[in-house]
Structure formats: C-alpha cells, structure tokens
Design brief:
The structure holds two protein chains of two kinds. By secondary structure, chain A is an all-beta fold. Chain A contains no helices and eleven strands. In chain A, 0% of the residues lie in helices and 56% in strands. Chain B is built from no helices and eleven strands. At the A-B interface, strand 5, strand 9 and strand 10 of A face strand 5 and strand 10 of B.
C-alpha cells in the first residue's frame, strides 16, 4: 500500500466555484503534513503546511483528520490560475517526505 | 536569494550511456535531496544528504546510480549505464535542516533515454 493516496482526477471546476479533495496516509505516526502545488512541467512548490487545528491561507483551507488519517484541501472562488496539480505530502519521519500522485485541478472559464 | 539550481534542464541520451546531473542548493541549507518523478506520479526519494554524509540512500538503485556531495554543498547524481526506464524528471531539493517547513525544489532535469 502506498504511503500517500490521492485520486488523480482531473477535477474540472467552473471558475468561481469551490473544489475540495482529500488524501489518505498510512503511517499513523506521521507528524507533519503539507500541500505542494505543481504546475505543468515545473517543480513542486510549497503551498501550505497543514496544522492539527486546520489552517487557512486566503482562498485555501487545509484540514487534518488524524483519526481517519486524511488531510484535505479546499479552494474557494477558483481562479483560472489555480489550475495545477496539488500534491499531498506526509512526513514519514527521518526527514523524509512522501508524496502522493497529486490531484489535478482544471479551472474552466 | 538564488533558489536551488540544477543543470542541465534537459538531457537525451541513448540507453547504456552514462549521464550526470548537478545541483547547487540554497546557500546555508545543510540537507539536500534527490528525487525522481515519473510521469503522472509524485516525486520519490532517491537519496538524502546531511552536509556531505548520505544519511538515507535506501531507495537509490545502487547497481547503476551513484551520488556525491563532496564538500557538503553541490551534489551530482550519476547513472551508468542508463536504461529506458530511467526516463523521468530528476529533482533536487534542499532544506535548512528540518522539514517542518517543507523544502525547496530546483527546476529539475528531464531525462529521456532512447
């Protein structure tokens, strides 16, 4: 079983709409979590860390559910520029990050 | 501040040939990572350095892959000989020591083996 599981999509979202997706992780001892954004043919870039209490950064909200071992990302008021792949990332321990396959988001005008 | 610098950006080689990738991390970042990303997949760790020491190379295919970080700064990743299945993007990343704040990737080297 993969450490981090994501539904690759694509998630086709009308401009201005809200989109949300989850990822599940297998290691219950994982302590820190992140969302990275990756544009086509570019490197991944840190979007936001995910804290136990949940956190928000503008139109982006991240949540962590330790009991069910999943994290989520919600994007409100989607912009065309939000089109990208969103990678769920889990700290496996020993300074190693495990990446999911990513959720591909396509915002449609 | 310069980010993580990788070269070359693209490389096309014939199978069985050697190839090398170079990475210059962000100044002051002690930890350096090499990842491989296949099409449609997330990055997978190949090796992690703390300064000049390879502290996690459990996922590096050691029969054909090697890496070095001689002075604890720049690093090279080598494949010899390359196989068709090695076609991927090779990403270098660095962090100041801990990963609680994530880390920064370079733009990667896209390798095509023909």
């Amino acid at each position: 079983r993969k450490e981090v599981e994501q539904d690759p999509g694509p998630f086709n979202v009308p401009e201005g709409a809200t989109v949300a997706f989850n990822c599940t992780y297998s290691n219950s001892a994982s302590q820190s979590f992140f969302w990275y954004r990756q544009d086509c043919r570019k490197e991944p870039k840190l979007l936001m860390s995910v804290y136990s209490s949940g956190n928000e950064d503008g139109r982006f909200t991240a949540q962590l559910n330790r009991a069910s071992q999943y994290i989520s990302l919600l994007i409100r008021d989607s912009k065309l520029s939000d089109s990208a792949t969103y990678l769920c990332v889990v700290n496996e321990g020993n300074n190693r990050l495990a990446f999911g396959k990513g959720n591909q988001v396509v915002v449609i005008p | 501040e310069a980010g993580v610098v990788q070269s070359p950006r693209y490389k096309i080689i014939e199978k069985k040939q050697p190839v090398a990738f170079w990475c210059n991390p962000i100044s002051g970042h002690n930890t350096l990572y090499w990842y491989r990303q296949n099409l449609g997949q997330g990055p997978e760790l190949l090796i992690r350095y703390e300064n000049e020491e390879a502290v996690d190379d459990s996922q590096l295919p050691k029969d054909r892959f090697s890496a070095e970080r001689l002075k604890g700064v720049d690093s090279t990743l080598k494949i010899q000989p390359a196989e068709l299945g090695d076609s991927a993007v090779y990403l270098c990343a660095s962090s100041p020591g801990g990963i609680d704040y994530g880390y920064t990737f370079g733009s990667g080297t896209r390798l095509t083996v023909v």
